[in-house]
Design goal:
Length: 469
């Protein structure tokens, strides 16, 4: 009985990683106006507050997973949590946009090392299928709670003025949670046996990080600077660096070394189509959270606290529709996701037409509910739809690529669609919201097209591990 108790206690402890990492994505969206004012940032600089975190997360996600295998999952989880806690405090102490964006990047890097260990611990601790299903459901519930909590806390702290500015508490809240988790990890979590399975591809990490930086940074900063030559040059350089990364990874695979990404995955047609669906879905998903949160406050004059509260009921509906989708997809396959895409598109069109000054609270929340009802049918099930054609021996590598693509897509959404939104904000927030939603609708169409091109198989590959949300 003691072993069972310890096993579930360990799970609760390591679930703090996805809890904190997801909270720190959602908590920022509501607080963007307060942060912008607090550190005297430009629109482009506050975009980087979100995109920089996702950039660090995406670049080191695969490395973080492998580090746990190589050095021991408890050790990597502990140091990842420690670095995340320190980086969070440095974010809260930031006095300039540059300081905040640098510390946010390292906060994302540390998240990339601690979160994959949670998934690995689930696989190691729970070998019984029923227990593992229960553990996975707790993982999903944690992500849902984190999303709702992040929105509410972001709104609450943005409207709070104590000894220090309220938005700084958004980052300092991680300090007590981090300290308790570090103590509990040291005291109760057992170490896993390290697997010395090859060297790290340090060069691959560096090349991928450089390529992502050359792509994301000019997309956020170049627009505000009037697209100077350096921004165009960096964008062009990013394509060259990405091409070299692909060449480098193929070469290492041919030489039987240990590349960061297994390029053989990209020979699977359905996997490539699925990744494009992931790209456009997470571009629209993350950018919408930013665009809607800023518009509700600046465009419709709703307080930060009430804006956060508006996301509670839609968040609950998201959780419910996610559970329903997991059952329906076995019978109806990709049609479940297509129905979700339709609901999301309908919600966005109605929001663009009806969310105007004077719009009722009921109207705003009901359309957000339609959006999240559809999103719940798509987002959690996208992983299985994308990876079901991947052979079991590539399951781990495919999940790593999926997660990296997901975080990169989120950063691109904030940079591109967020950039369109802030560009048109000079002409008025309503015009900006319409422009942002139009860009989001383009992504919706592309997701629908990719789902149409995917096969309609209803069987789901159960051997594929979870991806990081």
């Amino acid at each position: 009985m003691k072993e069972i108790k310890n096993k579930w206690l360990e799970l609760i402890i390591v679930l703090s990683a996805p809890l904190l990492s997801v909270i720190d994505v959602f908590i920022i969206n509501i607080a963007i106006p307060a942060i912008k004012k607090g550190v005297h940032a430009t629109d482009a600089q506050v975009q980087l507050v979100i995109a920089g975190y996702l950039l660090g997360y995406a670049a080191f996600l695969i490395t973080g997973g492998r580090a746990g295998d190589h050095f021991g999952r408890k050790k990597v989880f502990f140091w990842g949590m420690l670095c995340f806690t320190i980086a969070s405090c440095l974010c809260g102490l930031s006095a300039t946009p540059l300081q905040l964006n640098i510390t946010r990047f390292f906060q994302g890097v540390s998240a990339a090392f601690m979160v994959p260990q949670t998934i690995a611990f689930i696989q190691v601790l729970f070998t019984d299928p029923k227990e593992r299903a229960k553990a996975i459901s707790l993982f999903g519930i944690t992500l849902g709670i984190a999303a709702i909590t992040g929105q509410v806390l972001g709104g609450y702290f943005s409207d709070t003025h104590w000894v220090i500015e309220g938005w700084r508490l958004i980052f300092f809240i991680n300090l007590p949670i981090g300290i308790v988790t570090l103590w509990a990890t040291h005291r109760y979590v057992t170490e896993t046996k390290p697997q010395q399975n090859g060297k790290f591809d340090y060069a691959g990490i560096l090349i991928l990080t450089l390529a992502l930086f050359c792509l994301i940074y000019p997309l956020t900063q170049g627009r505000e600077a009037g697209w100077p030559l350096w921004s165009i040059g960096l964008l062009l350089l990013s394509f060259g660096v990405f091409a070299y990364f692909i060449y480098d990874q193929k070469k290492k695979l041919a030489e039987k070394r240990n590349p960061l990404m297994d390029m053989r995955l990209f020979k699977i047609k359905d996997f490539n189509i699925g990744l494009l669906a992931v790209l456009f879905h997470f571009m629209l998903h993350t950018s919408y959270l930013l665009v809607s949160a800023v518009y509700l406050q600046n465009g419709l004059g709703i307080s930060a606290l009430h804006t956060g509260l508006y996301f509670i009921l839609p968040g609950i509906l998201f959780a419910i529709s996610s559970i329903v989708a997991s059952k329906l997809i076995i019978q109806f396959g990709k049609r479940v996701l297509q129905a979700g895409v339709f609901l999301m598109g309908l919600a966005f069109i109605l929001q663009m037409e009806l969310w105007k000054p004077g719009a009722s609270t009921w109207l705003i929340i009901s359309l957000m509910c339609v959006w999240n009802l559809g999103n719940g049918l798509v987002l959690p099930s996208l992983l299985n739809i994308v990876l079901k054609s991947v052979p079991p021996e590539f399951a781990g590598a495919a999940a790593g690529v999926y997660s990296t693509f997901q975080q990169t897509a989120s950063a691109l959404g904030v940079s591109i669609i967020g950039g369109i939104f802030f560009y048109f904000s000079k002409q008025g927030w309503q015009i900006a919201f319409s422009a942002g939603i139009t860009a989001i609708l383009v992504c919706i169409v592309m997701v629908a097209l990719m789902l149409y091109l995917l096969p309609d198989g209803k069987a789901v590959n159960q051997n594929v591990p979870l991806a990081v949300d």
